[in-house]
Amino acid sequence: MQTLESIAAVRGLVAARRRDGEGVALVPTMGNLHEGHLSLVRVARARAGCVIASVFVNPLQFGTGEDFERYPRTFGRDCELLEAEGVDGVFAPPVAEMYPAEAGQQTLVVVPAFSRMLEGESRPGHFDGVATVVMKLFNIVMPDVAVFGEKDFQQLALIRRLVRDLCLPIDIVGAPIVRDPDGLAMSSRNQYLSPAERRVASVLHRTLVVASRRIAAGERSWPAIEAEACKALEGSGFLPDYVAVRRTLDLLPPQEADTARELVVLGAARLGRTRLIDNLRVG
Ligand code: PAJ
Predict the structure, then answer these.
(1) Are 86 and 159 found together in one domain?
(2) Active-site residue 37, yes or no?
(3) The domain that contains 214 carries what CATH number?
(4) How far apart are CA 205 and CA 229, in angstroms?
């Protein structure tokens, strides 16, 4: 496995592998890898002869007061895990390689359809940072396939829209959420949880399970379902940002004609200093 810090080095590796007739798959990450990330690498591996993973804690997608500084960075271990999965190249650029422009002068990619609701409302500017860095990674690697987790359901929807709106010839593949045995979705941020918080953290998943079962059983009073889910979270010590029943396709509120199978329940809540997100498709 090659470790690549420059855009030129990535292009060199990809060009050589393309000359050998290989397809190219990209798995973007911010590092501190766990089984969720590795599941994406396996999907990528099954789809292309050359797999590039990126490890880059993207400053552009963190708001002021968020955890950019303390985001866990474990690059040595990440490389061991990626190598064991047969990754061909890990792209880990310094910030200046990705953002040579002066502060505030970086060209941004904005996906208005998805960037202002839900996570975008709680984290203004977050998705402009995500769309911009992912677009840059696409332009650097020029993959045939890119793999993203359903854990970040809104991010995946936004990237599908970006690819469609900008006519990018890239197949976007979504991979299922990998969970701990108690249901908590794996996340690099879970390690911020104290042992006591970790014990209640799976209530987020269980709350979404209850909501999605009610919808599957035919309930259609979304505000009541959402409000009761928030109440359940508060009862366990969470500070909910939102619980929302939405359509999987466009993340808009459900319409009369939508069947339960086309819906997803999304939740975000703080537990102490840690912000957790999760979602569950009803279908
Ligand atoms: P990061 O949080 O490191 O996640 C990288 C990828 O792993 C994302 O596609 C995310 O959805 C997926 N992932 C994380 N936890 C998962 C889990 N438990 N099960 C399945 N997939 C999981 O998402 C980002 O980084 C960044 O926003 C990025 C796309 C890299 C842009 O900076």
Answers:
(1) yes
(2) yes
(3) 3.30.1300.10
(4) 11
